[in-house]
Amino acid sequence: MKLTHSFTSFWGILLHFLLLNTTLVHAHPHNVLHSQSRSHSAVPRVQEEHKALEKRALPDLRVMALGASIVFGVGSSDGNGFRKLLRDQLRYSGYNVDMVGTKNGGTMKDNDVEATSGYVVSQIHDASKLSYKYKPNLVVINAGTNDLVHNIDTGNQHERLKSMLLDLWSNISEKTVIILSTILPVDKPDAESLRGPVNTKYRAVVSELRKQGKPIFLADLDGFMTLDDLGDGTHPTDYGFRKMAGAFWSAFQEAKNEINDPLPADLAGDSGKTCRKSPGDGVNAGSQTQRGSGYDDGTYEHDSQEMGTLMTITSDWDRDQWFFARIFRSDRDDLLGWVENSAGNVVYAVRRNDGAGKFTKINTDLDVHDNCKIKGVVFIDLNGDGLDDFACIGSDGAVYASINQGNGGGDKPPTFVYKGLWRAADSKYPQSKVRLADIDGDGRADFCGLADNGDVYVWRNGWIDDMPKYWQALGKRFEGKGMGNLDGTRFEDINGDGRDDWAWVGDQGETFLWTNHRSCGVGKEGDGLKVAWRPGYYKGKTSGPTHTGGFAKGIRNRIHFARIYGEPQDFGLLGKQDYVYMEHSKGSDGKHTFKMRVWKNKGYGGTKLKGDGNKYCDMTGNGRDDYVWVLSKGEMDFYPNAGKDFITDKDSYWGPMQKAFFKPPRDLDRRDLHLTDWDGDGKCDIVWVDPDNKNHVSVWKNNYTPGGGFNWQYLANPAPELYCPEKRGIGFQDLPVQFADVTGNGLSDYLCIEKNGRIWGWTQDSKGSWTYIDQFFGTKGHDRANMHFADVDGDGRDDAIWVEKFSGDAFVYYNKGRKDVAGSRYHWEIQERGGPFPAYGGSYAGSCQYFPDLNGDGRADLHSIQATFPNTAVTAYNICGGNRSGDDSSDIKKPDLIIPP
Q1: Is this entry keyworded Signal (predicted)?
Q2: Which of 29, 781, 789, 870 could be cross-linked to 740 through a Cys-Cys bond (beta carbons 3.0 to 4.6 Å apart)?
């Protein structure tokens, strides 16, 4: 923001002249943004002395352009829209002009604006409050197109507009002049039919307020601007913006005599590079900054290989007593049989899965210390350690838990510790309507309640302990498919991506499947962590079941899904679940025979999303983060930052893609690969943390040169002292290690993040030496997967960012440097009332928010993935508060406006 006027030697001469000619001078006691300094643009062509004197006789203009995408300039070739044209006309006419607003858009130097694409009148009203502090004495408004397009309360649209106008005068100045335009034509019949009545009401509002003595004027675009002036049916072309600027200029001619000098602006601490970020003050890049990069594995197509009868068991009972559970290891399901022993206690006979379809009966029964009846028994991972625990669902729907201690081996089953009540009963969900499933993919079973129509309501199992620390209501996360009954409803991770899929098993074993995928849909507690469901089919089919079944009627409860072979679909995935039919027959002796018939899962798809491969870092050293899309096995595609701050729908934000600019020597899980500036040369290197060796590091040093491209130097073990014993979780962002520049010296520091969010590790100095830090950051009760590190305030040190998982809102613990505070070796500033500072307003789910520096100003921007399947994205720049100002040329020329007749 230009807050002071740089006087040239000419101004010294002129000042002397003006002191001798005081009658030519118009006094401006309050025309400053800060009380000690003026804010206006340098006078062009200083040799034209009498024009300069003329300009001094006019009030300074502090102009806020207020609205949505049209005001922002979407549709114009330079992103300036009508704003630069209007500004240039005002400058040419002798006015000093400073555009104000918390957003920036377009190529013009003084590109401050208060406009956000997609906003309706009420949102524009809220956004206008961010710029009250600038005390503009002229506000030009175009607002309301989005209300029409989405048919949002158009009958009261004029009243919402009026409320905004009155608030502008109440909070800025009663003397602030407002020029309001009517709404442009729109090439959508429903919206266009509403436009005429709304514009009529806009005119009435202006007339009413004018009669009350308010300084408001109308720029009427009806009949002057047509659909021919719009490039996409909504936004003007460059020609259309010339007409729009002309209409505002014509209205200004009526308004100019009522304009007074602006009041002092309230901008304490609002200039410079290191100001704090506030929600809602991001600057939209103009259009989508990602439009569908990356690869996926499509929707799930089931196929199977019949493996025959793997085991035959004779029993005295047929009572649905068979269960499959991962009690010894996470990649195989063992077979458990419910038994009531001679003491009247329930235990489970165990057949250990030894792999390759082989099972071994072990001599010691499994005791879960719960005499749960068969209908209530569930084996599922409750605490996210990869092993199945025990849950008993009572007849009233209450759930009780015993936790697998993971100490089984050989002929000894693991110990289970009874923990008691896991989830209290809910009268809506008795036993028959309760299911346990990992819906959000964090490895922990959630509580699912079934409605009569098959809709599924979910409560998330929160935190990291064996028992839930809290429950978070997710709302309705699945819509029933009209299958006729609830008995067949199950949740199984069929494809091995770590998220439980919805399956409905029919009476003859036929199974219908919808796979569970992460969604970027914004939400809130009670209606959040939305799921993108996709139907799966049998290979080559586009309808019908994935598993055809076709057995005798009445065998639904004899169908199981289990990791008998546990073969992953691909590298980095969990094992797929095979199809098991416990075929029953009863002998003449009254004994029951069960044949364990298995169909190995050979299905494919539904596990890899385009949205899972996104990484951002400055790979070329130009100060702007580039885009790197990483395949699941570690190969990387490079999209260079094209250096375009603002783009239109016709532009690409990135330069030409370089495919496979990095290929690892073997398959490496992309979750273990990090882009970070290891050596402080300004270019990001590639660091691999070995998940099987305490996350020790290997580095590919980036030796990129502008003429020579990328060259990688492999460093096998550059820092042997670095380690982290933590393991990554199931979720793609639940990582044990992150790299961040905590010290602010330009070098990567190594952060080991415990599951509870406590962080320790090492800092790196300029010589490449590492210093152990016993605690960077204490636990704050945040899920590890929701923690990020980036420089939010531009001071050179990475701050800690916590992203709220439902809404995508992000909060910052500001890094104040090395200082022992509350058990940590670094000081993380929080609000006086406690908790991190609100910084970014989310429009997408937390897992879809990234914080790269895309415009190269040293501040973390908000880059939001809009949807996981197409992998599109939008960007809001984090630009330090305060206005930009100044002319684009020292020679102000008259712009080519098109004036209304």
Answers
A1: yes
A2: 789
Alpha helices in 33-141 (DSSP H): 49-56, 69-72, 83-92, 121-128
pLDDT > 60? residue 733: yes
**Phi, psi for residue 288 in degrees, rounded to 5:** -60, 130
Q: Which domains does the chain have, with CATH numbers?
A: 1-26 (no CATH), 58-265 (3.40.50.1110), 290-296+609-877 (2.115.10), 301-601 (2.115.10)
Q: Are 798 and 740 in contact (CB under 8 A)?
A: yes
Burial of 823-833, coded b for 16+ CB within 10 Å and e otherwise, reads ebbbbbebeee
pLDDT tens for residues 541-551? Answer: 999 999 999 99
In sequence order, the 6+-apart residues with CB closer than 8 A to the CB of 97 are: 40, 41, 60, 61, 63, 87, 90, 91, 110
Retrieve residue 473's tokens.
């209501």
Q: Shortest CA distance to 815 belongs to which of 276, 347, 23?
A: 276
- Please give the pLDDT value at position 501: 99
The pLDDT of 837-849, averaged and rounded, is 97
Residues 115/281, Cβ–Cβ less than 8 Å: no
Q: DSSP string of 221-288?
A: -TTTS-GGGBSSSSSB-HHHHHHHHHHHHHHHHHHGGG--PPPPP--TT--SS-PPP-TT--EE-SS-
φ, ψ dihedrals at 695, nearest 5°: 60, 35
Cα–Cα distance, 270 to 266 (Å, whole number)? 9
Q: pLDDT confidence of 884, banded at 50, 70, 90?
A: low
Q: Which of 445, 431, 463, 442 is nearest to 326 (CA)?
A: 445
What DSSP letter does each residue of 658-676 carry, written as one string? Answer: EEEEE--SS---GGGEEEE
Strand bridging mode 103-104 / 112-115? antiparallel
Cβ atoms of residues 668 and 634 within 8 Å: yes
Angstrom distance (rounded) from CA 365 to CA 368: 10
List, as one string, the DSSP characters of 665-705. SS---GGGEEEE-SSSSSS-EEEEE-TTTTT-EEEEEE--B
Return the number of other C-beta atoms located less than 10 Å from residue 623's C-beta.
Answer: 14
494 vs 81, 163, 533, CA distance in Å? 52, 54, 14
Contact 581, 510 (CB under 8 A): no
User: What is the strand order of the sheet 737-740 is part of?
Assistant: 737-740, 749-753, 759-764, 770-777
The CA R_g of the chain, rounded to the nearest whole Å, is 33
Instruction: Identify the residue whose tokens are 């929080």.
Output: 830
Largest CA distance in the chain: 125
DSSP-assigned states of every residue in 704-751: -BTTTB--EEEESSS-TT--------SSTT--SEEEE-SSSSSS-EEE
Question: What pLDDT is stored for residue 35 in this prediction?
Answer: 29
- Both structure tokens of 607: 């596990």
Which of 252-266, 410-424, 770-784 has the lowest average pLDDT? 252-266
In the predicted model, is pLDDT for residue 473 greater than 70? yes
Q: What is the pTM of this model?
A: 0.78
Measured in degrees and rounded to the nearest 5, phi and psi for residue 11 equal -65, -30
Closest CA to 379 of 553, 559, 561: 561
- The two beta strands, 301-302 and 531-538, are parallel
pLDDT at 39 over 60: no
What is the percent of the chain with per-residue pLDDT over 70, rounded to a whole number?
92
Rounded Cα–Cα distance for residues 843 and 849 (Å): 9
Q: Which two tokens stand for residue 258?
A: 């009522």
Distance from C-alpha of 498 to C-alpha of 494, rounded to nearest angstrom: 9
Cα–Cα distance list, 233 to 239, 278, 316, 725, 888 (Å): 14, 33, 75, 57, 30
- DSSP for residue 313: E
The answer to whether residue 858 scores a pLDDT higher than 50 is yes
Kindly report, residue by residue over 231-274, the tens digit of the pLDDT. 999 999 999 999 999 999 999 999 999 999 999 887 654 555 67
